[in-house]
Amino acid sequence: SNPSLLILAGDGIGPEVMNEVKRIITWYGDKRDMPFDVTEDLVGGCAYDKHGTPLHDDTMAKAQEVDAVLLGAVGGPKYDDLDFSVKPERGLLRLRKEMDLFSNLRPAQCFDALADFSSLKRDIVAGLDIMIVRELTSGVYFGEPRGIHVEGNERVGVNTQRYTESEIARVARSAFELARRRNNKVCSMEKANVMESGVLWRQVVTEIHEKEYSDVQLSHMYADNGAMQLVRNPKQFDVIVTDNLFGDLLSDAAAMLTGSLGMLPSASLGLPMANGRPKALYEPVHGSAPDITGQGKANPIACILSFAMALRYSFDAGAEADRLEAAVEKVLADGARTADLLGPEGGSPISTTEMGDAILAALDAS
Ligand code: NAI
Ligand code: MG
Predict the structure, then answer these.
(1) I need a labelling partner for 305 at 20 to 30 A (CA). Which of 48, 283, 286, 321 fits?
(2) Pick the CATH number of 1-108+260-366 from 3.40.1080.10, 3.40.718.10, 3.30.160.20, 3.30.70.270
(3) The whole model's pTM is what?
(4) Is-catalytic flag, 248?
């Protein structure tokens, strides 16, 4: 049977950028003989409007069954005052949690045509292609005890950084596997100098490396130095693996090396399913962009590159992912720009659909 996809376009520009992805999925079926079984459903505010919950149980069940989930974005001002338990982002958090998506892949890739967009000098970022692997389901955002309590005559806020050996081991394996498909190089970042969880992190990563991945080149770096090195000389890295908190900060910083939010894809992977494919959710890094919703201004590339990651990591179609990424690179080199990709000197932007048209034309020519 065909590989299956669940599309959850969500709110705001989510459906706008996902429309362009749907056309590309159709193209792969028609032109590359790669048909997908696509199901669509609701997540976020639109799901709340219909069902009173940002993720219906039926949708959750579908997400567990398909080969991959593609998500647009959730949220918007209409939902800002909702109770925390039904906020749109709770739909996304539930997906991550119940699918146990512990490995978050955030590429920072700099397309040559956009190198002048970076906050850094062109020669530091041109050709940059690194991958940050962030542990997504544990660490200080989840550790117990947590809360705000009173001690003596003042309030105290508490969070706990806690990592088990198995939590570290599985994300380390995910990074090493990834490195074998790329340039065989992993840098693990923690703060073993001041944190017990960092000491354990370094021990476990080292053990997994020695036992299972000694062919991969492994280095360790304190995460604060890592932040500095990322902006000083990012091209020294290939795969970076780090915990939830450091990964949150480092991946956001790395993102800005490459320019616009409208360009950044991500993947969140879990354990292999019965068919050998990992549980997987692919989504752009950006949100629902209420300020440009409904105006045809959204850049669909982040969502399109997220589908390219699905081709690569869920469907073993690395060559087809390369084809799609090359099509994006080609249209950028030819000067196609949505509004977010225009520099201060301006120029005339194309619409979301026109960007989709250009990428489809480049695919046809590939
Ligand atoms: P945002 O990412 O939606 O927008 C930030 C800025 O970047 C805006 O000026 C927006 O117009 C621009 N932008 C974002 N994506 C773009 C694209 N594809 N093309 C062109 N311009 C783009 O973040 P913001 O404004 O903080 O949040 C808006 C809503 O999205 C909130 O409700 C927030 O909770 C939600 N959100 C959802 C996320 C998700 O679904 N994963 C992630 C981040 C925010
Ligand atoms: Mg963040």
Answers:
(1) 48
(2) 3.40.718.10
(3) 0.95
(4) yes
